[in-house]
Specification:
- There is one protein chain.
- With 250 residues, this protein is of the alpha/beta class.
- It contains nine helices and eleven strands.
- The strands form three sheets. Strands 5-4-1-6-10-7-11 form a seven-stranded mixed sheet, with helices on both faces.
- The chain has a single domain, classed as Spore Coat Polysaccharide Biosynthesis Protein SpsA, Chain A (Alpha-Beta Complex), CATH 3.90.550.10.
- It starts with 7 loop residues before the first strand and ends with a helix.
């Protein structure tokens, strides 16, 4: 049974001072700044009411104003993108907030709609909603920039790791699931998240959704086949440009 999810805001956290790639949101991909590409992808979702960039840097704010992209300032003390989305939820009142990472310039808008459909079925039964896809490429499986997720038989999160989990002592070949970095939360879930400092497993893995798991709260997952290429380092821009060329999307 489905229900109306109410009003929905897509939030794109964008931080300038990244330790691995300073100025990343404004880095150009085939001549177009990454944050603009991400915003244009998000706006293609058929189910969002609005979309906004959330930043703590005046350079990103100025760029967004130049491009007529809605943007709001958040504090520099945000520990994660989800903490930044929480600050937006304190300024703008919606029923549901979708966190789309600012370094996902080719994120498929269908993934946003999929999160909303999932929420329409399960509502407040879960603290957060997320997606995964199966991966078989050894480089991706062993990459510490790609988050792998273990779910139970109900597609609820058991753990997330930068390591290639699950490990098979029995010699079986695991099915590895890559987390897609797009999350859905209610205002209450964001308030619960932001009320805590980083939890122990969140600190170990540097995976923000583990904060919910450490607190004993559940996250609902669903399989997807959408495209997702995170830009973590300058070399990742070439991956995105190759993808755009292959898909004839330049």
């Amino acid at each position: 049974m489905t229900k109306n999810v109410g009003t929905v805001l897509g939030v794109i956290p964008a931080r300038y001072n990244s330790s691995r790639f300073e100025g990343k949101p404004l880095a150009k991909i085939a001549g177009v700044p990454m944050i603009l590409r991400t915003y244009n992808q998000v706006k293609q979702s058929s189910l969002l009411n609005d979309a906004i960039v959330a930043t703590d840097d005046p350079r990103i704010l100025e760029f967004c104003h130049t491009e007529n992209i809605p943007c709001c300032m958040t504090s520099s003390g945000c520990l994660t993108g989800t903490d930044r989305v929480y600050e937006v939820s304190e300024q703008l009142d919606y029923d549901l907030y979708i966190n789309i990472q600012g370094d996902e310039p080719v994120i498929d808008p269908k993934s946003i709609d999929q999160i909303l459909t999932l929420f329409s079925v399960h509502g407040d039964n879960y603290a957060a909603y997320n997606l995964y896809k199966y991966i078989t490429d050894e480089t991706e499986i062993n990459s510490d920039t790609i988050i792998k997720v273990i779910t139970n038989e109900l597609d609820e999160v058991m753990y997330m790791s930068r390591l290639p989990v699950p490990f098979s002592k029995a010699g079986m070949v695991p099915n590895f699931k890559q987390q897609i970095p797009i999350y859905g939360y209610t205002k209450n879930a964001l308030k619960t998240f932001a009320a805590r400092a980083k939890t122990i497993n969140e600190q170990f893995e540097d995976v923000e959704l583990l904060r919910f798991i450490d607190m004993g709260l559940q996250i609902k997952m669903e399989e997807t086949n959408v495209s997702s290429i995170a830009v973590d380092t300058p070399s990742d821009i070439l991956k995105v440009e190759r993808f755009l060329t292959a898909q004839k999307l330049n």
